[in-house]
Amino acid sequence: MARIRALKPDFFKDEDLATLPFEARLLYQGLWCFADKEGRLEYRPKYIKAEIFPYDNVDIEKLLNLLCQPNIQDRQKKVFIRIYTVDERKYIDIPEFLKHQSPHHTEKESELPCFNGEVTVIEPLRKGNRGDAHISYPISKSESKSLNNAFDVFWKSYPKRKSRGQAEKAFLKINPDEQLLALILESVERAKTSEEWIKEKGKYIPHPATWLNAKGWLDEDCEAHPLSGTVSDKTIRTVKMLDEWRPPV
Fold first, then answer.
1. Per residue in 25-59, is it b (16+ CB within 10 Å) or e — as a string?
2. What pLDDT shows up at residue 48?
3. Which of 57, 63, 113, 223 could covalently link to 86 via disulfide, CB atoms 3.0 to 4.6 Å apart?
């Protein structure tokens, strides 16, 4: 469960944090919001990624490992988080959490086991491998196939199929997981029956690449037609045309 935490201006000037890529710094902030009042949380990379980086393509495990092993010059023992295992379950501990946070006295007490002194190393970071946690390198064949299949689903659902290459490029950049893909498809279906997309035979429907780059699924002003869900999209368009029809003067 996310919690409201404080962020001091000095955070942005921290010289140790400045050695990390910006994704790691943002992740560090985000972990505060999901840690309990003792600065502990479960090690759940997929969940953490979905909550803190829902629209970004990042290697969350590599970022977590980087926070655990920052390898700061002249401060080799400095860490931002500690990953540890208790009873075969992994947890995250933020050592300086209480130094920067003052949880409300009514906040629920921690139910997670405290740090046991033994750091669980997920993957040793090689020198010079600090900045590639953001996935801009080629993905695997299986991931590529999965993304292509997801794009095909989106492409078939989108009412204006123009500039497929640009749309596919925008889609792959977003790299949606199942939850985000479902949200995108739901938003498309809702928008297809909106006044804006129906009028003048869909003249104002944006190209798919434009809609994706603008994160159109986040728009809140696409109100569905009153008949949406009760009749087909074709019927809604016909009704709309009849509503706008005026006899020639």
1. bbbbebbbebbbbbbbbebeeeebbeebbeeebbb
2. 92
3. 113
